[in-house]
Design brief:
The protein is mainly α and about 450 residues long. The protein has one domain. It is built from 17 helices and no strands. Helix 1 runs parallel beside helix 8, helix 2 runs parallel beside helix 12 and helix 4 packs across helix 11. The two termini are about 20 Å apart.
């Protein structure tokens, strides 16, 4: 079996980036489909799914941060021409994903107590959280499976699985949330969770089928044995990213809980804005993974000049990609957001002005975080994950969580707008130190 040649050309970057971005958007798309489909059900269901979904994401992305690193190994093996080793890191991350049930299942069982839901969202939120947690291992498993394909820059099957899974999720959401008269009862947030878990399982099944196909069977079955070195190597490299994912999402969950406990209006503004922001950031994180894949291949080849060329092209791509969110949100908020919100049964037009101003700040944050994601991707490709994690976490807790908590504790109004203004400071500081790290070249390491 031979791998794909990945280089710094625009064509190569495009064919690597598109499926990886789509792959990374998979989880975000799944979460947001749930939120979109419950909009017409009720505002309370929207906010309950948002808060509980973010709590689930705290743990889901904790493990995805580790299974993601299989892409780095696959990329460097592919770049070095060591094709017989391509599937080994994938199998190790499948074993790891199964082991995450030891964390997900107890949290699911104790969901009645392990949450920060306001009382008015408790019933809808707890059951959604419980079902999502029982399906938790499926999400890091998908990332581990996708690594075999995206690490080589040939991820058509990943793209196809995501499209099929998303379409299935929409269909199941419609049927299970609203019901079919006389056949299926309206399940509300229970239906939203079931639709997401079932759709994710189908996506995984498609990738497993492709992984064990006749074309790949010889190499994949040969590599299925447990490999202690690669297993713990992935954990070592992925642990800082994993901890970073966990702490960032935990930070946002704490902030959201503080805002949501003020009033239903505040909770609704935050729910809508954070859904948009997280979808935009998922695009940036997808570009970060694509950057890691390309740079890892180039490091495997020992081509420093090409890594710098690819880095500059990815920065331009990040600016273009963020523009797809920034310009519509800044210039046409009514058409992008408010017309959509008219689907709600309740009238929430009173929050539109506050939401409009918040969207302008979100636009600024999206641009900064998109650039930050590219530099992070470069550092990860060389296995340099500890430094950026420390910087990223220190700044978000110092500039966003702590000031928000102080305001909340002393009775000051904690608006969603304030949160995104504080996020601007966090991102400016992080971006400055990330760029200095890139210039130092301490990240450039061959791992295989």
């Amino acid at each position: 079996m031979s791998g794909n040649n990945v280089d710094s050309s625009r064509k190569s970057i495009f064919f690597v980036t598109f499926p990886i971005v789509l792959s990374n958007l998979s989880s975000a798309i799944m979460y947001n489909i749930d939120r979109v489909m419950v909009v017409a059900y009720s505002v309370d269901a929207l906010n309950a799914v948002n808060i509980s979904g973010n709590f689930f994401a705290v743990f889901s992305f904790l493990f995805i941060g580790i299974t993601d690193t299989a892409e780095v190994y696959v990329g460097q093996y592919n770049g070095a021409g060591n094709y017989n080793r391509l599937a080994s890191p994938v199998w190790q991350m499948l074993y790891f994903s199964l082991a995450t049930s030891l964390i997900f299942f107890p949290i699911a069982y104790f969901s009645d107590t392990l949450n920060l839901l306001p009382s008015y969202y408790f019933d809808d939120g707890v059951i959604y959280q419980k079902i999502m947690m029982y399906g938790g291992p499926l999400f890091p498993m998908f990332t581990g499976l996708a690594a075999f394909f995206v690490g080589q820059g040939r991820a058509k099957v990943v793209t196809l699985s995501i499209i099929c899974g998303s379409c299935l999720n929409i269909g199941l959401d419609y049927v299970l949330i609203y019901g079919v008269k006389g056949i299926i009862p309206s399940l509300g947030t229970i239906g939203a969770a079931l639709a997401t878990v079932i759709s994710q399982a189908i996506q995984n099944l498609m990738l497993i089928t492709a992984l064990c196909s006749k074309k790949n069977r010889k190499i994949t079955l040969y590599s299925c044995k447990f490999d202690k070195e690669i297993f713990f190597g992935c954990i070592k490299i992925g642990a800082p990213i994993s901890v970073s994912n966990f702490l960032v999402l935990l930070a946002w969950y704490f902030v959201q809980s503080m805002v949501a406990n003020l009033s239903k209006e505040d909770a609704t503004i935050y729910s809508i804005s954070v859904s948009i922001y997280m979808l935009a950031i998922s695009l940036g994180e997808g570009l970060s993974k694509a950057t890691s894949t390309v740079i890892a291949n180039l490091i495997g080849k020992g081509s420093l000049g090409e890594t710098k060329t690819a880095y500059k092209k990815f920065l331009i791509l990040a600016l273009i990609a963020s523009g797809f969110f920034v310009f519509p949100l800044s210039l046409f908020p009514d058409q992008c957001v408010f017309n959509f919100l008219s689907m709600l049964q309740e009238d929430i037009s009173s929050i539109y002005e506050a939401l409009r101003i918040t969207l302008h700040w979100i636009s600024l944050d999206v641009v900064l975080e998109s650039l930050l994601c590219i530099i992070w991707g470069v550092l990860v490709a060389g296995g340099d994950t500890v430094y950026p994690t420390i910087v990223y976490q220190s700044f978000i807790w110092a500039f966003v969580v702590l000031p928000t908590a102080v305001c909340y504790y002393f009775g000051y109004h904690v608006s969603t707008l304030l949160v995104y203004q504080l996020a601007f400071l966090w991102l400016c500081g992080s971006l400055t130190l990330f760029y200095r790290r890139y210039l130092s070249m301490k990240w450039y390491n061959k791992l295989v």
